[in-house]
Amino acid sequence: MSYIVTEVLRAVSSALQIPTIIILILLILLTVVMLGSFVAEIFSERKSLKMNIPKLVDELQGKSSEQMKEVINKSGLLKRQKAAVQELISRPDYADDTREALARQLIADEESRYAKITKITDLTARVAPMFGLMGTLIPLGPGLIALGEGDAATLAESLLIAFDTTVAGLISGAVSYVISGIRKGWYEEYMIGLETIMETVLDVQTNERVKAQQTVKTTKPAQPKTAQTVPAQPVQNAQPVQTPQMAQNVQPAAPKQSPAQPSPSRQAMQQTQNFQSEAVAEAARKRAAVEAQQEAARMQAMAARQEAARRQAQMDAQTSPAANENARRQAVLAAQQEAARRQAAVAAQQEAARRRAAVEAQQENARMQAAAQRQSSMQQRPTGQMRSTDDMSFDELLHFFETQEGGRQ
Hints:
- By secondary structure, the protein is mainly α.
- The protein has a domain at 2-214.
- It has helices at residues 2-15, 17-46, 53-60, 65-74, 79-89, 96-137, 140-149, 152-218, 244-249, 264-380, 394-408.
- Helix 3 packs parallel to helix 8.
- It starts with a helix and ends with a helix.
């Protein structure tokens, strides 16, 4: 079973060798393309870029929309940055929130574009070393087998493939990593400058709108001057002479009309409006009365809660000495009980130790008496009855040695 699994893994790894080499070649070509675009960006955009953000902000202050467009066109911003800023400047009549949303959208579009560019080199920098390691390890298996069989040519070929794939993966990853790091620094600088210009344009347009509103409020329309006609002096037996201007100013007198009486429909409408206004006033009065009642009830409830809290505080103040005395007594009683328990435990331990010492002393005295009795009995025996240690049993030998040891002590 293990042989089959090993053969399957070997076949899979051998089959992946050619695809790994192909992917490494494609990664190297992609790295070359990215390197070319990087060099082209250096000589096209970075070389012509002359972006002085503080100076540009100063130039935009107090300018109108058309003037700001001219300043942006003459500035050293990139083409895409100029297009984004002009897109915002061309909409000064939008609301402030709408213009801010548009500015955020334009900035997000630029960030997305830069992120797509750097994502390619980031992916290459991470993937290329992995495939280089795969291309290194895959041919080492056949190379080791050839080494065991003594085939030096196959071993040399396998090692050559391994080294070539390793170098290819490392070069591709290193170049992509450097390009990605440099471009991220550039694009971060671009985005900071674009955000600054966008904020400046929004502030300038807002200030311009506020000034226009204030100008409209302060200016008043001029009163038109009406021409006054001077009545001509009557001349006897002569017709009054009228100039063209006087002819224009003179208008026929309108016939006097008697004041019109209101119609019944108008009277009914006026009565309906009066009734509606009275109903609205009555509803407002009732609503005010209800709110006053609710406020009074809320104040009464608050006063009741304050009175209850005051009474509870008084009761606590009255009962606190007794409660404190009871708590103190209980604490003293608990401390006395704990001290008595500890004393009883110590006395019990001392009594047990005393009894154990007495028992050991009794056992030691009994052992010493027995040893003395055996020694005296052995000394009282006649010489001829003394036995040698060879004729003694194990117990007698044990008693003999204990007696000797006790005599030495």
